[in-house]
Amino acid sequence: MKMQTRIVRFIRRVVPAIACAATSASAVGAQEPVQVASPDGRNVATVETREGALYYSVERDGRKVVLPSRLGFEFRNAAPLSDDLTITGTARNSVDETWEQPWGEVARVRDHHNELRVSVAETAEPGRRFELVFRVFDDGLGFRYEFPHQPALQYFEIMEELTEFRMADDARAWWIRTDDVTHRYELLYSSSPMSTLPTVHTPLTMETRDGLHLVIHEANLVDYPGMNLTGSWERTLRVSLPAWADGVKVYGRTPFVTPWRTIQMADRAADLYPSVIGLNLNPPSALDDISWIEPMKYVGIWWGMHIGVQTWGSGPRHGATTENTRRYIDFAAENGFGGVLVEGWNLGWDGDWIANADSFSFTEPYPDYGLEGLGAYASERGVGLIGHNETSMGIENYERQLEDAFALYERLGIRAIKTGYVGDRTAEGHAHHGQYMVRHWRKVLEAAARHGIMLNVHEPIKDTGERRTYPNMMTREGARGQEYNAWARDGGNPPEHETILFFTRMISGPMDFTPGVFDILITSADGTPRPPEASRVRTTLAKQLALYVVLYSPLQMAADLPENYENQPAFQFIRDVPVDWERTEVLDGKIGDYVVVARQERGGPDWYIGAITDEEARTFEIPLSFLTEGVSYVAEIYADGEGAHWLHDPLPVAISEQPVDAGSTLTLALAPGGGQAIRIRPAR
Ligand code: NOJ
């Protein structure tokens, strides 16, 4: 028996038995591989040195997933930390605890993992030291580098992180490219063997040829650039970091920890979601009082600008007028929505607002927007205003005004802010996802927390689980959302888009996709339905409803103009659907083809099902065994109506009711590009 296999067997036998939070440490003499297994023994990480270079590898069920892959760093003005390395000791720990989310896809999260801490030192001068820490869960693993304070490594400038993912299989990957221009995640996904990848964003979802599903991502990104991955023909993904204007990737000072690099693993696509590894690798909440944080649905002065009937800037079509905002507040109050987003309320939009980033004021309204009075008008009606701060990447301009602006919003009772970062780089030339911007986003998040403000970030940095520590980090964009259906030159999002998003973008966390457009042909733009080749919503109306269940966001928009919801019985589903869930069960799913999700409302008995498909019609038989035994329920069904088709006839919705219980099976028939939304409530 090979040494490695013997160690795996030993660890599988011993580690699961280690008591909760048990810790042990040992010194390593010879350079033997060291290993750590998940509590169920299926996932095993190995760390070893070979001729002074440090490697890790990953196996699942004894099958190789990540082959021995290099670790280390290159610095400016210092030798690389990648050779002449030796393992000087190990320490182990095990944790099994369950914590409660203030809001989310599930109410409770189990953090059950085994940790291996490997101490590594340079044998040559200058003798720098670091720890490589692995946490291995039943659904995957995370690892990070930790640099203790030490004379040989105090201030440093990282030019490259040498971490690799050398994949055992040329798995199929679903990816979006990144470079200087296409860095905002707002691309359609491609899929191809991973050996063909350019530089791509994470989460990167892959399926091996024998059916293992993998997601490479990161967690707890605080003071570091976002991680991209560059492919190569030899099936190796290399970490690639966006830079500061001077080319440095990371400015650091010890003690210092990197973000976690995570590899999630699942036997079926459906088991990838909801993903909690990233949450478990973030510290618990830093906020004591979170009573002001409240998931909600919202409407907004927004879609009108995207379809061209209103403007952000001043003029006859200015959207953010007092009168229009009152109309939205009244609509929100009548329909039980918590918020009204107002874009274009502040000075700075006139002219080229992307080029003139420094013109934005975050405290001064346009003269036709009654900033002071509208806050009171909204709160008298039980509605909160959602302010909007588009920075156009004018970061210094925004940071200069941040404290004053947030203090003003707090005084006016503005409960949430949507921020925006349209633009490629900062004025100073720092990358959109580099360390400078990551620091900025953290600064804004902390300031928002101090002022009781929830955040919805557009053109954000990807989600790496910060909502665990700052539960006011509600939602973000970070993918092609609904707005592309209003104006994209390529015709909008194709019918398969959301069936890919669910297994890629949504693995990282909530998304402000802004579903709920009922005027699918965008007739409101100029009074005539848009033709098939134009940008328009490429789903059926029933699929727009299903997206409320499929694409999770604790701030969830009803995106269309209020008048388009009038006399629409299907709007009842949007009024009913919750934004906070007790449980989430993915009942079926195939990346790029279809998703069927059931979620139970938080603190209530109702269940909701959302099913979506790509351009194929599909039928699903769904047993309702997740319902409580012995309870009679009614299913309120919003299905694609007769003849519905995303391209030819997207509007028909068939609304019906049916008695059901835990023994029932529902048949869900989805039209091409269609969907189905179901509320299941106890019979009254
Ligand atoms: C792009 C955002 O995604 C969109 O929601 C917003 O309306 C515009 N930028 C203007 O800030």
Q: Could you say what the CATH architecture of the largest domain is?
A: Distorted Sandwich
Low-confidence stretches: 1-22
Helical region count? Answer: 12
What profile does the largest beta sheet have? Answer: 11 strands, antiparallel
Name the bound molecules. Answer: 1-deoxynojirimycin
Shape: globular
For the CA atoms, what is the radius of gyration? 25 Å
The helix content is: 10-25%
What is the strand tally?
37
CATH fold category name of the largest domain: Beta-galactosidase, Chain A, domain 5
Which assembly state applies to the chains in this document? single chain
Describe the structure using short key phrases.
684 residues; alpha+beta; Beta-galactosidase, Chain A, domain 5; 8-stranded antiparallel β-sheet; binds 1-deoxynojirimycin
Verbal overview:
With 684 residues, the chain is α+β, with helices and mostly antiparallel strands. The protein folds into 4 domains: 1-28; 31-280, Distorted Sandwich (Beta-galactosidase, Chain A, domain 5), CATH 2.70.98.10; 287-478, Alpha-Beta Barrel (TIM Barrel), CATH 3.20.20; 481-551 and 577-684, Aldolase class I (TIM Barrel), CATH 3.20.20.70. Helices cover 15% and strands 34% of the residues. It is built from 12 helices and 37 strands. The strands form 6 sheets. Strands 1, 7, 8, 9, 10, 13, 14, 16, 17, 21 and 22 form an 11-stranded antiparallel beta sheet that branches. The chain has an 8-stranded antiparallel beta sheet with strand order 2-3-4-5-12-19-18-15, with helices on one face. It has a 7-stranded parallel beta sheet with strand order 28-27-26-25-24-23-29. Helix 4 (322-334) runs parallel beside helix 5 (371-380). Bound molecules: 1-deoxynojirimycin. Residues 302, 343, 390, 420, 422, 458, 477, 483 line the site of 1-deoxynojirimycin.
